[in-house]
Each structure stands twice: as C-alpha cells, then as structure tokens.
Design brief:
It is a single chain. This protein starts with about 25 loop residues before the first helix and ends in a 38-residue tail after the last strand. The protein contains eleven helices and six strands. It folds into two domains: about 100 residues, no CATH class; about 130 residues, no CATH class. Helix 2 links the parallel strand 1 and strand 2. The protein is an alpha/beta fold. The C terminus is likely disordered. The longest helix has 21 residues. The strands form two sheets. A four-stranded mixed beta sheet has the order 4-3-5-6. It has a two-stranded parallel ribbon with strand order 1-2. Helix 3 crosses helix 9 and helix 4 runs antiparallel to helix 5.
Length: about 270
C-alpha cells in the first residue's frame, strides 16, 4: 500500500494517530473498533471483514450483520475504515439512510438508486465539512469567488474556518493528489470556542451534529458544493502564491445563466 513515508497529506493529518504503530491491518482496525464500541446503522457491533461473494451489497451487509467489507492492503478501504473510527455516528447514520432507501425502493419495485442514495454516496466518498463561524465566507466559496476567499480574505478564512475531509475516496486521492481534485462540501456553523479545539478533537465534536443531519435531512447531489481541495490553505505549498488561484482547471468560475433560462434548465 502506497502511503507517504513522511506521513499523510495535510488534509488527512487528523487521521495520523491511527498510524502510530504503522499502517493498521484488519485485526488492528477491529481491535480499535471494539475499544470504541462502534456499531453500524442498525446497532450491530461493527467488524471490518474481507469482501465476500454473497448477494448482499456493502450497505446491506453492514446494516444487517455489522460487517464492513474491507480489502486487506487496499488504501481506499483503509481510509473508509479510518473514517468509521473518526466519525462513527455519522457513518452509522449514512448506513441507516442507505438501507432505509434501499428497502423502500425494493418495496416499490424501483430499480434506480434515487437522488437520496446518490447524494449520500457522494458525500461518503468525497465529502468535506466546512466548519466555520463566517457564513459569508462560505457563500463566497459557493459562488466560486475563489480569489476573494482564498487570497484576499485568506487570514480571515484561516482564523474562522476549518476544512475536514470526510470522504474516504478523497483521502485516497490525497495520497497522490492531482490538479482538479475536488470535494463535495457542506457548511456547519461553529463558534469561536470550537475553533480553539485541537485538530484531533474536531471530528468527534462534529460527529453527532453530522449524524443528526444525515438521519433527518432530505438530500440530492445538488446540495453539495464543489470545493477544489488543493485550494484549501495548507493543502499544498503552491497555494501560498496568489496566482495559483488563476488556474481555471481547478478554480472554475461560477456558471452564468442564459437569458430566459431557469435553474431547472441549466
């Protein structure tokens, strides 16, 4: 498994503690899950197990049996396991919503996944929590005002906002980052006291809020906002320079509406 010898990417650094004894294997992951009393969406004790050839899919197997399919030596699956450890309530809530949506679709005889499951999968794979005390800066990101937020108001952004990568596929990609790497972001408003928490305490402090959101919200893929991960301060040394944000391969301008068009016809 290719993980950087000097440590994880800066955006994955909050997971570094899980590597204190080297890259954790399945027995070590399961020991940590037992120590923390992790459960999946139905409340079944969580176990990381090798994939099987059975008929049950990932979400169904996790929900019913507590078994989270995890390929040994696979970086993508390792990060999925680590996010289970870091955000156990949120991951269980996602699993619960997936299973409920799957069950409902089967009852109605529908084969398609639907917007809710697509949205949940997107966030599970590529989600980023933008936790901040300035909704105005978040609105700037939503409007693709990249230079304003990341350059002109950079100091304010760094004081008022933290970016926590939730998606395990994004962590996998950050092990070998590429131009254009993008996450699916949501905003959680926090206060000044929360922003003083140590980095390692941030996931646990948000876990319950995210779980409540995933359990009760109605989502579609349009609810997540695109966020160029390498534009986040500290994600790469290159983004200390203002002209880094001129690269439209990563920092695309907001779409403009054609005269007479409506949001549903973009």
């Amino acid at each position: 498994m290719n993980l950087p010898g000097a440590g994880l990417h800066p955006l994955s650094a909050f997971l570094q503690a899980w590597f204190a004894d080297g890259v954790p294997d399945l027995p070590r992951l399961n020991a940590m899950a037992r120590e923390r009393g992790l459960v999946t969406g139905k409340g079944a004790a969580l176990r990381f197990v090798e994939p099987s050839s059975g008929a049950q899919g990932y979400e169904e197997r996790a929900y019913l049996a507590g078994e989270v399919a995890t390929r040994p030596g696979n970086r993508h699956d390792l990060f999925n396991a680590l996010i289970w450890l870091a955000f156990p309530l949120s991951k269980a809530a996602l699993n619960r919503r997936h299973f409920a949506a799957l069950t409902d679709a089967r009852r109605q005889g529908r084969a398609e996944r639907g917007a809710l499951r697509d949205a949940l999968t997107q966030f599970d794979e590529c989600g980023v929590v933008v936790a901040g005390s300035s909704p105005e800066l978040w609105q700037g990101l939503c409007a693709h005002r990249w230079r304003e937020v990341f350059v002109e108001r950079r100091a304010e952004l760094m004081r008022s906002t933290r970016f926590l990568v939730f998606g395990h596929a994004s962590h996998d990609a950050l092990a070998a980052p590429f131009v254009g790497l993008c996450g699916k972001a949501l905003f959680v408003e926090v206060d000044a006291a929360w922003l003083e928490l140590p980095e390692t305490a941030a996931p646990a402090s948000l876990d319950r809020r995210l779980a409540n959101l995933f359990d009760s919200g109605s989502f579609s893929p349009h609810d997540w906002r695109p966020l160029p991960l390498l534009g986040i301060p500290g994600a790469t040394t290159e983004n200390q320079h203002a002209d880094y944000y001129d690269d439209t391969r990563q920092f695309r301008p907001a779409r403009t509406m054609r005269p007479g068009s409506s949001p549903g016809n973009r």
